[in-house]
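Reviewers asked in the last cycle whether our approach scales beyond single polypeptides. To address this, we selected a multi-component target totalling 1320 residues and predicted its structure end to end. The input consisted of the following lines:
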Amino acid sequence: MNSFGRLFRVSIFGESHGDFVGVNIDGCPAGIGMAAADFAEDIERRKPGAKGTTPRKEDDIPQFISGVFNEKATGAPLTILFKNSNTRSGDYEKQRAVPRPGHADFVAHKKFNGFEDYRGGGHFSGRLTVAIVAAGVVAKKIIESISTGNKIGIHSTILEIGGETDIEKGLQKAIDEKDSVGGIVECRVNNLPIGLGEPFFDSAESIISHAVFSIPAVKGIEFGAGFAAAKMFGSQHNDALINADGTTKTNNAGGILGGITNGNDLVFRIVVKPTSSTPKEQQTLNSETGNVEPFSVKGRHDLCIALRVPVILEAVTAMVIADLMLITKK
Amino acid sequence: MNSFGRLFRVSIFGESHGDFVGVNIDGCPAGIGMAAADFAEDIERRKPGAKGTTPRKEDDIPQFISGVFNEKATGAPLTILFKNSNTRSGDYEKQRAVPRPGHADFVAHKKFNGFEDYRGGGHFSGRLTVAIVAAGVVAKKIIESISTGNKIGIHSTILEIGGETDIEKGLQKAIDEKDSVGGIVECRVNNLPIGLGEPFFDSAESIISHAVFSIPAVKGIEFGAGFAAAKMFGSQHNDALINADGTTKTNNAGGILGGITNGNDLVFRIVVKPTSSTPKEQQTLNSETGNVEPFSVKGRHDLCIALRVPVILEAVTAMVIADLMLITKK
Amino acid sequence: MNSFGRLFRVSIFGESHGDFVGVNIDGCPAGIGMAAADFAEDIERRKPGAKGTTPRKEDDIPQFISGVFNEKATGAPLTILFKNSNTRSGDYEKQRAVPRPGHADFVAHKKFNGFEDYRGGGHFSGRLTVAIVAAGVVAKKIIESISTGNKIGIHSTILEIGGETDIEKGLQKAIDEKDSVGGIVECRVNNLPIGLGEPFFDSAESIISHAVFSIPAVKGIEFGAGFAAAKMFGSQHNDALINADGTTKTNNAGGILGGITNGNDLVFRIVVKPTSSTPKEQQTLNSETGNVEPFSVKGRHDLCIALRVPVILEAVTAMVIADLMLITKK
Amino acid sequence: MNSFGRLFRVSIFGESHGDFVGVNIDGCPAGIGMAAADFAEDIERRKPGAKGTTPRKEDDIPQFISGVFNEKATGAPLTILFKNSNTRSGDYEKQRAVPRPGHADFVAHKKFNGFEDYRGGGHFSGRLTVAIVAAGVVAKKIIESISTGNKIGIHSTILEIGGETDIEKGLQKAIDEKDSVGGIVECRVNNLPIGLGEPFFDSAESIISHAVFSIPAVKGIEFGAGFAAAKMFGSQHNDALINADGTTKTNNAGGILGGITNGNDLVFRIVVKPTSSTPKEQQTLNSETGNVEPFSVKGRHDLCIALRVPVILEAVTAMVIADLMLITKK
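The resulting structure, written as structure tokens, was:
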């Protein structure tokens, strides 16, 4: 299904070149504040414009279609639209025969039997992440509203771009090479209650990774020590419990044991692949000629999509936490 | 919830020291063969006994409680039990004050308010993976029964143990150090149809990782080039389409684009943390004394749980594929 | 949750006095025709205007926000909006202290802690049934597209209004009494495949009644002989199988045995309570004065909401059948 | 799916002539008491033996396979088995060509392509209702444990048997006619909190009827005034609110308005069709001869299955209430 969550359920919809993209949220408790201004900061963080990001500009003011009254959630299904103000009607019909490398063009065509909206990636467009960010804002509000302890903080940081921890340097590499680059982003959540998640199929790692891989371009995730654990001894990896509140001496588990949050910081990292639309010439099959031919991307694009991922990563993490807290707390 | 799948739905249950562990499967098509002998090979592969694994022995003959008639699935809910023949009744009550490092003891106690079955890890025990393996056998049968193309093959391989690609060497390291080690396991699936998965929340990566993190001790997953993508340029990472059947020149995407399988081999790797029960002395909080005290594991355990993971990894992968094929094919 | 269906999943949203009501549909197969004109007939049937119905007029032209391209479903989530053109901004704030008898005012206030949109019934408004009707149109198209046998026909008929089988007479009773009346509506589906539904929890009766009670004002449902079965002998009620295609001599089962469709016409009847907004003076508690006081409905309303139910009943029935056919057929 | 509930999820399994029938429950809170003795009363109420019921006797002592430790729920998935001690191995193979009128034999054969367990009705057997009764006992315990107000009481009463309110008289009718009879059963729940249920698709009526139609032989349900509402005026049917706690003067709504419980008694009635296995000769198609032939039921059966329904009806009602309370309360 194209939705996520059990008690806080998010469905996103829309296409790159449609009139709107949007989100339908089921399970937002009544009374949560829903002023458009509350969404501005996170939506701004997602916006392009910085070095290495695409210049496509959208106003991205949330339009509340349902579930909001007097700037508060009513408890009924919540629908938010974002206008697509900047859709240039390109000559997409011609490009159909040439699936862009790294993009969903080929699989979309196959999966939807040729009925897909192929303009600008259609439903597969990164444009839909604005709807995810909006859902994240709502989720953060819910977390704050139902949390009984210290304020739960969700923070994402870029660790690496193009293999460099100096982000500017990584971007410059892409500019110099006239190519695109990827990166690694870390998310940390503190003050999370103990006990979120289930022993097997709905382990905290299961639910988080499920949500995280809905972000386009993410190709890997690791919790705590992650892949480095493969080279550690058990005595090194195990975190010694040192406090009755769950605090451990180290945090190689990334805050999750047996699928359940253990009271330490939740820590995980994701890898974001290089932007598929690279300025460099590539190759792909032209289905009309039947030949593998050179391919060049038209227009300007993000050199590094990872730059825009942090706020989206926080959003899906918040969605997970809100849902697990609603399920667990009672 | 403690179940997985939409049309092929698997629920596992049981405890380490209960009479049985088992699995309830909803959505197994009528007519699928269900002879106990069909389960023997995969169950054997999961069994302990080899170097580096625990000597606990179970017969593990599947007992069909429902949904099977004349050695065929009836289409009604399928229940399979496995007898726990080898449960030694240890002095678990005393050990409760001392949560084992790396285990779920502490979180289980908190999450279930002290009512958890604490004997041998209770419901969190790796013992339940025999139920997952059984579900995997059923899933493989379904895949074969509904597949219309070449035989879909699901194969897991251990890539590294204790940081060594020579597995024996990695194990020897653990033995020499009197410690436990982790490892990296790869799963490959060939002949998968194009079009499994959804664009965002139920991307193929989302569903697979959801299932994979239900395996105890898994702490990371990466698809195709995975974390290495963070150091690649876009022109390197993009896979050039070279054939109308979806074949690409390289497979850095690991067989998934835009969340959808693209006709190439599905390839992903997971990291398995070192076995939590290590022979080495560790530390943990004694809740009775209130002190952090030295802790030693009693009895014998797997030195490297990763050794037993391949068949379990294949099982959850088969569960995902069976479910996605049932959903997608129609 | 505020959605229905497993593979064909419908979520409706909106409020009586919001800008739009709408529907989000997940699982509509790609290629299904989606011209606005295709919706006209059913939407017209739902419209007020006839004798006994409210004069509120809406244009009700579906606006496709997502999932449609070149008048065909793309396979991505489908969103349809309907503009609320006729929302008079009444003095609703004042009326809050006086919950209307038979309406959801009181429960909405309690359930949503006073944050409900109380204008014109808010989210509880019958206005949202236009979104259900739209989902029904989509469902009928899917049924036609995946059906392999004779055309499946879904038809609702009003059997009784105000206790009279002569509908005009029943309405006249309401007009004469200056009161509202209810009715009984029957739904019949022919050419349904054998085998839809599950033995227990998702019996065909379970799923159908689940959907049917989402229609406001429905207070009962019966299949085949229904409540009359309580006075029959088994030898009378049992339907003798007379043909290998499943045809039975009688159809007291209403086309369902053991929870599964049996190849005969699906037949069920529902009761629609009298319109809650009756012209007659009633009583209710004024929460400001604390007194039970006389209450009179302002404005004009449907005298008999049952008149508008048939097309909505067909819609939810089509939703069920589309979903069950997608699940069962494979 | 063959399961019910969102947070309190019940799956039943088994066949009439298998070794066991059983239930798997996901979402039972840790600490709920689980002594076998707690189940005795309700299981006893379901048992045959009374006038008009079948003499098949089962001990029906619950065997806790998982999720119970020291006679308390652990919070892990709960599995309960009931031994089928009384399965006579009849000559079922021969009877396959002759589907019993009123039973699921024909649809089971079609739906499951001939792989169904046909012995004694297989999975469709009323025998599985013992598993539902067990789930109901658990549900009642949960309701009591999470309820904050007066004790919620769930009580079913037989209103009519064979068209007679004097139940003995109705049964005698069946005995005299050598036929089977049906009946009407009412369920009442008091002290239910206000606010359970959702406005449309998951209205309280939707969820209750969904659960209720999982009981074999139920063919209709009505809430409050039910079908009688079709003959009432709005001013008669509307219940005047007379107290701030939600109490209304009358209860024609049966305790539900706008799909939401309103603080009055929940009241609904169901019709149970006459037992399909009637002593009277009937007709059915013999698939071997291709002829419609006389058919006689072998062995002894319930003359009136409605007699055993009350405790099952309470069970499914308790399942619904437990689930809705877990969802709503927070």
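The first strand of chain A starts at residue 3 and ends at 4. We regard this as preliminary and will revisit it once experimental data from Aim 1 are available.
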